Amino acid sequence: MPELLPLAWPGLSGVGAAISLPGAPNLCPYLAHTDQAEVAANRASFVTRLGLRGLASPKQMHGDKLVLLNAEPNGEIEADALASSSIRLGLGVFTADCIPVLAVRLQHGRPVRVLAIHAGRKGIANHIAPKALAGSNPADIGVWLGPAICAECYEIDGQCAEECLAAGFARAHITPGGQGKFNCDLRGELRLQLRRMGIHAICELNSCTRHARNPDGSPAWYSHRNGDAGRMMSAVWLNHQP
Question: Domains of the chain by range and CATH?
Answer without folding.
Answer: 4-238 (3.60.140.10)
